[in-house]
Amino acid sequence: MIERTTKSGLKRLMKSGLDVQMRRKVHREMRGSHCSGIVMGLRAALGPGDVCIDLGANVGETTVPLAETGATVHAFEPDPDNFAKLAAACAGFSNVVLHEAAAGAEAGQLTLYRSTLLEKNARKGSTGSTLIADNTVANAEDTVDVKVVDATAFVDDFIAKHGRVAL
C-alpha cells in the first residue's frame, strides 16, 4: 500500500525507476488525492440553502460529502445497481434528491453499456459504464436501457422555479 504524500512527492516517485505496476498504483493515488481536494474545496463553498447537481453520482462518493454541508444535492445516476447503492448511501439525508437517469443533451432513452471491469472490481468498475458503445471498457453483452434527462433543460427549469444553482 502506498502511503499518502504530497503530489510533488508522488511525481518524483513516478519519475524514478518504479516498475509499471507500482507506477499505476502511484498514478491512482495521485488521481484520488486530486479528486479529494476538489470535493473538499466544493464542501467549503457550500452550505444550507445552496443547491448543487451531481451528474453521474455513481454510488455517492461525492454526493454524500456534498450533502453533509446541508446543501440540497440533486444526484443523477442511470445504472440501476449503482442507483441502489447511491440510494442506500444517501438514505439518511433529506436534502438529497435522487434521479435514476442519465444527463444528456436531450431527453429520451439510451442504452447504457456496463463496464467490463465490473466483474473484476465492482467499486472501480462501476465508474466505467458508458452511453458510448465503442468504448474500450463497454460490455456490449451487459446493457440496460436508461432514461436520459435533458441536463440543460433541467437546470434552466430549476433556476426558473427556485433561483440559482451553486454548482
Show the helix and strand layout.
Elements: H1 7-15, H2 20-45, E1 51-55, H3 63-67, E2 72-76, H4 80-89, E3 96-99, E4 102-104, E5 108-115, H5 122-125, E6 138-150, H6 151-162
Parallel strand pairs: 1-2, 2-3, 4-6
Antiparallel strand pairs: 5-6
Helix pairs in contact: 1-2
Number of domains: 2
Number of helical regions? 6
Order of helices and strands: HHEHEHEEEHEH
What fraction of the residues are assigned to beta strands by DSSP?
A: 15-25%
List low-pLDDT spans. 1-7
Number of strands: 6
Helix content: 25-40%
Largest pleated sheet: 3 strands, parallel
**What best-fitting shape do the alpha-carbon axes yield?**
globular
Strand order of the largest sheet: 1-2-3
Radius of gyration over alpha carbons?
A: 18 Å
Specify the oligomeric state: single chain
Keywords, please?
167 residues; alpha/beta; 2 domains; three-stranded mixed sheet; 23% strand; disordered N terminus
Description:
This protein has 6 helices and 6 strands. By secondary structure, the chain is of the alpha/beta class. The strands form 2 sheets. A 3-stranded parallel sheet has the order 1-2-3. Strand 2 (72-76), helix 4 (80-89) and strand 3 (96-99) form a beta-alpha-beta unit. The longest helix has 26 residues, at 20-45. The chain is globular, with a radius of gyration of 18 Å. The two termini are 34 Å apart. Residues 1-7 have low confidence and may be disordered.
Describe the structure in brief.
The protein is of the alpha/beta class and 167 residues long.
